[in-house]
Amino acid sequence: MIKNINKTRIVLVGTTHPGNIGAAARAMKTMSQDKLYLVTPKTFPSAEATARATGADDILADAKVFPSLKEAISDCDLVIGTSARTRSIPWPMVSPRECAKTISEDQYSSVAIVFGRENSGLSNEEMELCNLVLQIPTNDKYSSLNLAAAVQIICYEIYLLTGNDSEKGPVESTAALVKQDKMEMFYQHLEKCLIDIEFHDADNPRLLMHRMRRLFNRTQLEENECNILRGILSKVQEKIK
User: Fold this and answer.
1) What is the CA 20 to chain-centroid distance, rounded?
2) Whole-model pTM?
3) Could you tell me if 36 and 148 lie in one domain?
4) What is the pLDDT of residues 14-26, one digit of tens each?
């Protein structure tokens, strides 16, 4: 589990469209990432970037701009470059989930995830500055992802391991579960109702009630749910009299 989510920086190299910078900042904000590094962006600052950020203005305001990737990652101990194409020279490859797990290791104190230009990605020289290559699995017939979408996917996987909302787990109901004695009363009521509507033959029961018990035992009814079901049974019996 990542003890310090702020050790990860998102580095965008040579971004040509300022709107993509704003959209990437928004994607970062939703996943609690706040370190945006820009390498030779074509246009920045930009009103269009601010408009696309939609509430992530603080990330744009704090963004750092560098003249080269080497300078943007100089203090990092792990650099992960993203690529949508297969390189001629084999490179250690990770998926977004594997990337998040790698980042979570305590030995890394400052991590950069590097995204290349919209039309050409990272150059071979820039890839040589990276420890790992990250590829997002996509449809083989259409492998191109929008820059902000790619940032969102990676940040999401990291977010799952940060111990934020995911650590809390699903919200558990605080409603009281039905005690066994009340469940027995429910089963008796259910069986009586099924006999009344001629769905259940008490002289030839087969396995009906056994299966009904198994069904409701799996659900672990809450008291109010049991009361609702018994109310329905009572109304059915009232209607058939």
Assistant:
1) 21
2) 0.69
3) yes
4) 999 999 999 999 9
